[in-house]
Design brief:
Maltoporin, Chain A, 27-stranded mixed β-sheet, 58% strand, 5-stranded mixed β-sheet, mainly beta, globular, 673 residues
Length: 673
């Protein structure tokens, strides 16, 4: 696949670089006011908190009991994965993330950005969670509700912004090694020296283990195995200040191998990313970005009757390219104006073989794929009028869905299916607006309304899949999802150490893509009329000296509205969607590096399927973390996942079940954290 990155993104980047000298001419300040290289993008705008926004700090990230990104994010009210499995024991393609109970399929309805780069898989739309090590991050900012800023066409349910840690946070060297009672291991390290007028960082992580049993004891057979895994990832950054510009070069490579349920049911995912970002922080502020991504995925499906290979998804190469440029002109002290354009392209192809599970003979070869592309323009303005801040944004997207095909060839070499799908394209306009009122020093009122857009992924359009005993068909006629939402909230800052906030919301996704049951053990991806979610989100934080308490709660009433084949779904809750999710965390951070943290989480019952026949019971878990200095910057670390060994059902299809992480004890050493 020939990359069109240079041909398509070059105009944006060349225009930005050409303009930079003029825009940045006043950015070089005197020695007393020297610009500091931050390694991030432009500062958040004044009205960012007009929308429901939560931040996860570095201290919260490095004290997650599992050491996994999804664990830290689970403390944010409204955050949801498609399944309750983590990135050691789930199929990677099921690692879609969403917000506000707008789930129901495995593609992400929330936009995940790493240093401004979209991290959703170009083919499947999931997030490579195992490649995003929390110890490499400085901060996560979660904005719930539709977005119209850069890459806003993917921010249907909100945006999750991951910001990499700089040299100050990482230190020259950090490292850790841990092992658990199953002899699973986790090793990570980073090196972040100051270089030139900035810094460089190199980080690596390697996780491996035999894993835990996902199959209940009474369902195990001789072919049953633990959820074994082995993954590694390497990330590098170079950040330099060149005159009035800040130049950021980033690379990421990862490989992830897992085995699920049966011997031979192996899957692999791998990827490589490169990105270049140039930031000017002068009177004319500019943020320009270009990136390229390559991904591949393979998966072997084992029959639960014969325990032989039934399907070999042997190769799914995909690539993505994109870029953006955002300019903030100097329009006065009371206004912050953002003008920008962005472009994204995703291309992928599927190569798989189907087998007769009884005889082992290959019955079909299948091929599928296509290209999605999006070009968008956006403008957003914040106006500060004393205690009142107003914000509004408008975005126009030109999208295309092209080159789609599905082909099947039988064992004799005869083409039995040869479908090519008509190209289609259109314009879509989305917007958002909000207001923020500081009623007094302690109370802030906010309200917002917004719309959003998400294109169907190549996976949803062209790739069928099976999770025994259910087969789900693709649908090349899927339409884009569109969201309209409203929210209002109140935030209290009783003192600098005590804050809490409440948000009520009403979000509705029209043409929501769902896996609709059309026959016994047969589903198809279809646009249902709508998924509507109404609810309340609560968050609170208390800090008293070294002690801290954080609470998060989401109560949601979410339902499907359908017609035609999906008419019987009207009033049902979307699959994989709980009505209640909450967490309560307590922490202690000493001046000598001592850390303790405990987290209590509860997730209510949810249904596996759209017909509400297979229930996933509620689950309550307790996690612990402890870090005690040993010598200098060396510390002993202990982590406990699922302290009371709660049974967590992550899949239930007609009584065939998978389970989540059991009680797990980790011990190890850390240096420099």
């Amino acid at each position: 696949m020939k990359s069109p990155l240079l041909a398509s993104a070059a105009p944006l980047i060349v225009a930005a670089l050409t303009a930079f000298p003029a825009l940045a001419q006043d950015a070089v300040l005197d020695d007393e006011n020297t610009i500091v290289v931050l390694g991030g993008g432009l500062e958040a705008t004044p009205a960012v908190t007009a929308y429901s926004t939560v931040e996860v700090t570095r201290d919260q990230l490095v004290t997650a009991a599992s050491g996994r990104l999804e664990d830290a994010l689970s403390n944010v009210a409204g955050f949801q994965q498609f399944r309750r499995s983590d990135s050691r024991s789930s199929n990677p393609t099921a690692q879609g993330v969403t917000l506000r109970a707008l789930g129901g399929n495995a593609s992400s309805r929330a936009l995940v950005l790493l240093d401004g780069v979209p991290m959703l898989d170009p083919f499947f739309g999931h997030v490579p969670l195992s490649a995003l090590a929390p110890e490499r991050l400085e901060l996560i900012r979660v904005t719930r509700g539709g977005g119209s800023g850069p890459f806003g066409s993917g921010a249907l349910a909100g945006t999750i912004e991951l910001e990499s840690a700089g040299a100050d946070a990482l230190g020259l060297f950090t490292g850790q090694v841990l092992a658990n009672q199953r002899e699973d291991t986790e090793i990570s390290a980073s090196l972040a020296p100051n270089v030139g007028n900035g810094f460089a960082s190199l980080s690596g992580r390697w996780d491996r283990g035999q894993g835990f049993w996902t199959t209940p004891v009474d369902q195990r057979v001789p072919a049953s195995v633990r959820a074994g895994y082995e993954s590694w990832s390497v990330s590098g950054r170079l950040v330099q200040q060149l005159g009035g510009l800040e130049v950021q070069l980033r690379g990421l490579a990862f490989d992830d191998q897992r085995t699920l349920r049966f011997a031979g049911a192996d899957n692999t995912s791998e990827g490589q990313d490169v990105s270049l970002r140039v930031v000017s922080r002068g009177p004319w502020q500019v943020d320009a970005l270009a990136y390229a991504q390559w991904r591949n995925f393979s998966n072997v499906v084992i029959s639960s009757n014969t325990f032989n290979r039934a399907l070999d998804q042997k190769n799914t190469p995909a690539e993505g390219q994109g870029g953006k440029i955002e300019v903030r002109p100097p329009v006065g002290d009371v206004m912050t104006l953002r003008l920008g354009a962005d472009w994204r392209r995703s291309e992928g192809n599927l190569f798989e073989d189907a087998y007769n599970a009884a005889t082992g003979a290959r019955t079909q070869e299948r091929f599928a794929g296509g290209v999605n592309e999006n070009f968008g323009f956006y403008a957003e303005n914040d106006i500060e009028l004393g205690a009142l801040t107003l914000t509004g944004g408008l975005r126009a997207d030109r999208y295309s869905i092209a080159d789609g095909y599905y082909r099947a060839i039988n064992a004799a070499g005869t083409v039995v299916t040869d479908n090519t799908f008509a190209d289609r394209s259109d314009w879509e306009v989305t917007w958002r607006a909000g207001a923020l009122v500081e009623a007094n020093e302690a109370v802030t009122l906010r309200a917002a309304a917004y719309t959003g857009l998400r294109l169907p992924t190549l996976n949803e359009l062209y790739r069928p899949f099976a999770v025994f005993p259910v087969t789900t068909q693709a649908n090349a006629a899927l339409r884009p999802e569109r969201l309209r939402g409203y929210e209002a909230g109140i935030d209290f800052a009783v003192d600098p150490g005590l804050t809490f906030g409440v948000t009520v919301f009403d979000n509705k996704v029209k043409n929501a893509i769902a896996n609709v049951t059309v026959a016994n053990n047969l589903r198809e991806r279809q646009n249902v009329d709508a998924v509507q979610s109404r609810g309340v989100e609560f968050s609170s934080s208390l800090q008293r000296g070294p002690w801290g308490v954080d609470a998060s709660l989401a109560l949601t009433d979410s339902e499907v509205r359908g017609s035609g084949a999906a008419a019987n779904l009207t009033g049902n809750r979307p699959s994989q969607t709980p009505t209640f999710a909450g967490s309560l965390g307590a922490s202690y951070t000493g001046t000598d590096g001592t850390r303790f943290a405990a987290t209590l989480r509860h997730v209510s019952g949810q249904f596996e399927d759209d017909l509400e026949t297979d229930l996933l019971p509620s689950a309550t878990t307790v996690d612990l973390f402890g870090q005690i200095p040993v010598s200098g910057r060396l510390s002993a670390v202990a982590r406990v996942e699922n302290l009371f060994d709660e049974t967590i059902i992550t899949r239930n299809q007609g009584g065939s079940m998978d389970m989540g992480v059991p009680q797990t004890f980790w011990l190890g050493l850390r240096y420099g954290f």
